[in-house]
Specification:
Oligomer: single chain
Strand order of the largest sheet: 8-7-6-9-10-11
Helix content: 25-40%
Shape: elongated
Structural class: alpha/beta
Order of helices and strands: EEEHEEEHEEHEHEHHEH
Length: about 260
């Protein structure tokens, strides 16, 4: 089956999606993915159908979002249209590994909140029958005898969320995670009081300021109006996406430095 891949090849100024955002369109106008919606996407869909009917293989179109389309973004984009055949699928963003310790009410709500996001969740709880029968495809439940061993085997760059049934286990997991310098985000469910107690205990265990800056406790966005698990989970999901974006920006800056050094 022939389809047209529409990709944002260039983006300048304020635009609804970033370079590389793409969608696939068939001759009937059915599509997957998005380049940002609005008039831009509507015109791109129409052009893709026209190109499929005409037999053309590829073309580029440039849009000034304000003057050309009346969109408020005001930036400029170049769209690339390319005919593709067969079962071509859109590339998915690289999934960031996330370790979630605890399958209680908040843990379950959090796994559901992260289901549609580019995150690979390793869901850890040693208790018998802790996990529900159904869970999202990006989550892998594991029940190790000692959950702390999961910290040692976590991949570099993993985001760690600790919300177990035991404060003692929470502290042990915190200690293990902060002893690694390649786990950028260590989040613990709790309160300001728990944070103060943990900081004191972690200092007595030998952790310095650099390690403790990676500790986020309590987790979640403040002032969402409720402490229900779903609200907490929504706030934590935002925090993880912010951390993922920060990592991406750091990696991009690092690549730029290396490229300048190589010249």
């Amino acid at each position: 089956m022939s389809r047209m891949r529409i990709t944002i090849a260039e983006a300048h100024g304020s635009t609804p999606r970033e370079v590389g955002a793409a969608m696939l369109v068939d001759a009937e106008g059915r599509f997957s993915g998005t380049i940002g919606g609005g008039v831009l996407e509507w015109q791109a869909l129409a052009e893709a159908q026209r190109l499929l009917q005409s037999g053309k293989i590829r073309r580029e179109m440039r849009f000034a979002l304000g003057p050309d389309l009346g969109q408020c973004c005001g930036g400029r984009v170049t769209l690339s249209f390319e005919r593709v055949e067969g079962e071509t699928r859109l590339e998915k963003p690289e999934a960031t590994p996330v370790l979630i310790f605890g399958a209680g009410h908040v843990g379950r709500a959090l796994v559901l909140a992260l289901a549609p996001l580019p995150l690979a969740v390793r869901w850890i709880d040693p208790r018998p029958n802790a996990f529900p029968q159904a869970f999202p495809p990006n989550a892998t439940p594991v029940a190790p005898t000692d959950p702390v061993t999961e910290i040692a085997s976590a991949g570099a760059g993993s985001l760690v969320l600790i919300l177990t049934h035991s404060h003692a286990l929470d502290l042990a997991l915190c200690d293990a995670a902060l002893r690694r310098d390649d786990l950028p985000f260590v989040g613990v469910i709790g309160s300001a009081t728990k944070r103060a107690r943990f900081l004191s205990q972690l200092r007595s265990m030998g952790h310095g300021g650099d390690a403790l800056t990676r500790l986020t406790c309590p987790i979640g966005i403040k002032d969402l109006g409720s402490k229900e698990p779903a609200f907490i989970a929504a706030g934590v999901a935002v925090q993880l996406l912010q951390e993922k974006a920060k990592q991406a920006a750091t990696e991009k800056a690092s690549r730029g430095i290396h490229a300048r050094t190589a010249r």
